[in-house]
Amino acid sequence: LTTRLRQQGSVSKAEGERLVSFTTTGDPLFVMGAVAIGFFHSEQMGIVLALTHYLSAIIMGLVSRFHAPFAAVSKPLEKTSLPLPLRALQAMHRARIRDGRPFGKLMGDAVQSALNTLFMIGGFIIVFSVLIQLFAAIHLTQMISTLLAIFLGPFGFPPAFSQAIVAGLFEVTLGAQAASVVPDGVSMVWKAAIASAVLSWGGLSVHAQVASILSETDIRVAPYFIARALHAVLAAILTFVFWQPLVKVSTWFLEKSVPVFMPTTAGIPVTSWWETIAFSGTLAVGVAVLLFAISLLARYVQSGKTR
Question: Which pLDDT belongs to residue 154?
């Protein structure tokens, strides 16, 4: 949608970069159904992951306002006294007239476009799943996991999550699943924080999909990459900070609601402030290293374009 708005001239380049930076989120069915219920077998985890994931996305939307603050803005909409729903219907009617295609043609093109996008997404998922298996076969993921555990171990990071982070770096579903199968000796808050970070990061598979779609416009991918890293860090920190109140609220909500899934046998334990501080420090170091690597890559690409 952002690409289409940019091609139509409805948004400027900076506005498109802001828009795509915070609108790439997991849908509720995936977050609460596939990850929370399917992987963690916990309704409480679904409420925690959903609230931290979307709250951090809203915060990222507010932060994105400071991206390119002096850039050109799009043409303002016409001011009328009509209510917003009527203005929306009026704009839709005018857009249909300008388009000129009949309703049947619009429906056919919409279905064809949806199928093409679906095949593209499925293809990227298969490609990156094969890459992860290939890296595992040549022991590359094990080497990266070992180095990550050695680097983050002094900051209090559980080494068991190294493999989940490496898998989540490439594909969000595999990363969330790897975080859910970490041994039970690890605190549940760490599992939730890592899963929330993986969901917000999205994986290089999703990034490749976004880059493929944005290549049709002049919208840059670098701000999107930085936003995804910040979103992951922010979601994980919010999981740690609001863990105790969210667990209590979710427990009360599930007790008062009609059960849809089989109830869990044990509640989610709370965590200490020391774990929160340790995790926040670990994330700060991780995002600093990631942003430094992204800046080096951007400079290399820019220098190549200059030459």
Answer: 74
Which alpha helices (H) appear in the chain, and where do they start and end? 2-7, 13-22, 28, 43-63, 84-99, 103-137, 140-152, 162-170, 172-180, 188-201, 203-214, 222-241, 243-256, 273-306
Q: Are 193 and 236 in contact (CB under 8 A)?
A: yes
Query: What is the number of domains present in the chain?
Result: 1
46's tokens = 């679904």
| Overall average pLDDT of the 125-137 stretch | 86
pLDDT at 283 exceeding the cut of 70: no
The answer to whether position 78 is within a domain reads no
Q: Which of 236, 284, 280, 190 is nearest to 56 (CA)?
A: 236
Q: Please indicate, yes or no, if residue 80 is contained in any of the structural domains.
A: no
Q: What is the pLDDT of residues 4-33, one digit of tens each?
A: 889 988 889 999 999 998 888 988 999 999
On whether the CB atoms of residues 1 and 18 are closer than 8 A, the answer is: no
Pick from 129-133, 207-211, 228-232, 300-304: least confident: 300-304
CA 229 to CA 168: how far, in whole Å? 12
What's the predicted TM-score (pTM) here? 0.75
Residue 141 within any structural domain of the chain: yes
Q: Is residue 157 part of a domain?
A: yes
Token pair for 136: 């595992």
Q: Could you tell me which of 296, 31, 289, 295 has the C-alpha nearest to residue 157?
A: 289
130 phi and psi angles, rounded to 5 deg: -65, -40
Residue 230, domain extent: 2-73+85-302
Nearest to 171 by CA among 191, 141, 192: 141
